[in-house]
Amino acid sequence: MKINNLDISSMIIDLTSSGKMLRPAFFLLFSEFGEKKRSTKDLIPLAASLEILHVATLIHDDVIDDSPLRRSYPTIHTKYGRRNAIYAGDYLFTLYFELISKNLESNTDILRNALSMKKILIGELDQMLINFNVKSTTDMYMKEISGKTAELFSLSAAMGAVVSDGSAELITRCKEIGHDIGMAFQIIDDILDFSNSAQTGKPVHEDLKNGVYSLPYILGLEAGNRQLIDILSKADLTAEDDSLATDIVIDYGYLNKAKDIAKTFTEHAVEEIEKLPKNKNQKVLRAIVQRLVNRIK
Amino acid sequence: MKINNLDISSMIIDLTSSGKMLRPAFFLLFSEFGEKKRSTKDLIPLAASLEILHVATLIHDDVIDDSPLRRSYPTIHTKYGRRNAIYAGDYLFTLYFELISKNLESNTDILRNALSMKKILIGELDQMLINFNVKSTTDMYMKEISGKTAELFSLSAAMGAVVSDGSAELITRCKEIGHDIGMAFQIIDDILDFSNSAQTGKPVHEDLKNGVYSLPYILGLEAGNRQLIDILSKADLTAEDDSLATDIVIDYGYLNKAKDIAKTFTEHAVEEIEKLPKNKNQKVLRAIVQRLVNRIK
User: Fold this and answer.
1) Cβ–Cβ of B110/A101 closer than 8 Å?
2) Angle at B15 between CA B218 and CA B200, to 5 degrees
3) b/e string for B97-107 if b means 16 or more Cβ within 10 A?
C-alpha cells in the first residue's frame, strides 16, 4: 500500500519485524473457547486490527518521547520524519476503525473496541502523572499500565471469546485473563528492564533519567524511602546516583516485592484459565503464563 | 472532563471558540430531508462527533505545521505542549469513534464513517505531494481538498440523510451536495486568503513561503507560466518575489479561473439542492451557497 510515495506496509514491517504479535496471537488463542468454530483465515482482519491499534500508539509514543530506537530498529519518525509519523499513526487508527467496523457483527462489539481504545489513550495520558513524580503510588502505576498495556490484552482475549460466540460468562473470564496476563507482562517487562540495566551496568537507566519510574522504584517511593526519594528528586542523575538507587531497590526488597505482585497476577490468571473449556489452547495459555513467570525466577 | 489535570473541554473550547461549527450544522440541516423526524437533542452526540473528528485533525495538523495560531488563538501545542497535543488529538479520535458506535444503528453507517475518516487522513497525506512541488496539477489539488475538506462535509450531509431514514437516492444526493459545497468552501477560502494577503500587503504569503500552493497558483503552474515557475522554484521567497507572483496570478487570469471553478461546484450544488424535498432547510441551503458565492464576487 503506497500513499504519497511512502510505503505504509514497509513502515509497519519496520515496526513489527522484531515484534511478537502477542495481541493477535492472544485473540486467535481465545477464539477457540466459544461454541462457534471460526477459520483462522476469517479472523485475520480482526487479529491484524489489534496489532495495528498497538502499532499506532507505539508510533505516537515514540514521537512524543522522541525515542530513536524501538526494538533495536530506528523509530518511524527517525526514519521518515515527525510529520509522516504522526499521520501514519492517525492513518493506522482509521485502518483499525475500518477493520473493526467491517468485521464485527454487532454494534455492542464495535463499541467495546471504541471504549478500549479510549481506555488505552487515557492510560497514555495517565503515564504523565507518574513521570518525574516522586509521589507516584502503586495505585497510579497500576491504573496506568492497566490502560496502557493490559487493556489491549484484555480486549484481544475478549474479542476472541466474542467471535466464537462465547457466553457472557466466558467473555468476562477471557477479559479478566487477558487483563491479568497484560498486567503481569508489563510488570515483568519493567523488572527485566531494571535487572538488565543493573547487570550490563549501563551508565544510567534510560527510563529513570526520563523520569519514568517502573514498579520497583515506585514501591520504594511509596514506602517513603528517604534516600531513594532524595536521589530521584535530583534534576540530573549521575551514574553514581543510578547505581545507588539500584542498590536501594534491591537491598530493601522492592524488586522482590514487584516480582511478588507480578506473581499475584499470573496466579489469578492461572485460576481463571483452569475454568476455561478444556482444549489444547487452555494448555498453551498455561504454558505462556509459566514462561512469563520463569523470566523473573 | 479532566484527564491528567488537563481540561480537555477547555482545550476544545479553545479550538472551537471562534469556529463556525459548520459540520454539525450541516448534519442537522440535512437531517430533515428523510422520512423520520428526529429531535435535535437526539442528534447532538452525532453532530458533536463530526466537530470532534474535525478538531482532532486540526490539532495534529497544527503540531505538524508547528502553527502558532489557529483562528487567531494560540494552538493547542503552543499552549499545552506537543505531547498533550498529540495525545489530545488521539483522544478525540477515540471519542469520535465512541460516539459513532454508540449512536449509529447499523454497521454500514459506522463503516461509512470509518471510510470517511480514512479518506480524510489520505487527504492530509496527499497535501504533502503538492507542498513545494512546482509540478502540482489541478487534479492533485482537487484530490487533496476532496479528502481534506470535502469528505467531512459530504459525510456530515450523508449522515443527516441516514439518521432521518432517507432513501439510498437521497443519501447519495446529500453526499454530493455536501461534497460540492465542501470543495467550493475550500477553494473560496484559498482565494480569500490570496486576496486578503494581496490587499493587506503582508510581506510574503505565509502559505506560499511554506510551499503550500493554493488553486490560483496551481493553475499558473499547470499552465506552464515560466515566470511563476521560476519564482516558486526559488529556495527563499522575498517580498518582491511574492508581489510579482501575485501580479502574475491576477494578470494572467488564474485568480478568475479559480473563481470560475468554485462557481462550477456551487452551481452543481444548487442543481442538486433543487431536487431535495421542499422545506425550509432547502431554502437555508440555497442561502448558504449564495453567501458562499458572494464572498468572491
Assistant:
1) yes
2) 45
3) bbbbbebbeeb
Q: From CA B289, how far away is CA A135, in angstroms rounded? A: 57
Distance CA A243, CA A249 (A): 10
pLDDT at B18: 46
Give the one of A60, A82, A94 whose C-beta lies nearest to B118's C-beta. Answer: A94
> Closest Cα to residue A49, out of A104, A119, A122, A108?
A104
Query: Which of B83, B101, B124 is opposite residue A114, by nearest beta carbon?
Result: B101
Question: What does residue B2 show for φ and ψ, rounded to 5 degrees?
Answer: -120, 130
Q: What is the C-alpha to C-alpha distance for residues B248 and B254, in angstroms, rounded to an integer?
A: 8
Can you spell out the DSSP letters for B261-272?
A: HHHHHHHHHHHH
pLDDT-based confidence at residue A238 (cuts at 50, 70, 90): confident
Q: What pLDDT was estimated at residue B237? A: 85
Which residue of chain B comes nearest to A84, CA vs CA? B125
What are all long-range contacts of B267-272, with beta carbons under 8 Å and residues at least 24 apart?
B268/B176, B268/B180, B269/B177, B269/B180, B269/B181, B269/B184, B272/B173, B272/B176, B272/B177, B272/B180
Answer whether residue B275 shows pLDDT above 70. Answer: yes
Give the start-to-end residue ranges of the domains of chain B: 2-294
What is the greatest pairwise CA distance in chain B? 59
Residue A76 has pLDDT above 80, yes or no: yes
For the A2-294 domain, the top CATH level (class) is mainly alpha
Q: ipTM higher than 0.90?
A: no
The cell numbers describing B118, all together, are: 480514512
Chain B, nearest residue to A103 by Cα: B107
- For residue B144, count CB atoms less than 10 angstroms from its CB and return exposed for 0-12, middle for 13-18, buried for 19 or more: buried
Query: Minimum mean pLDDT among B14-23, B102-111, B284-293: which range?
Result: B14-23
Torsion angle in degrees (nearest 10) through CA of A212, A217, A218, A219: 170
CB–CB contact B104 A101 (8 Å) = no
Q: Which residue has the cell 502499532?
A: A55
**Of the candidate ranges A241-255, A275-289, B129-143, B201-215, the one whose mean pLDDT is the lowest:** B201-215
Q: How many residues does chain A have?
A: 297
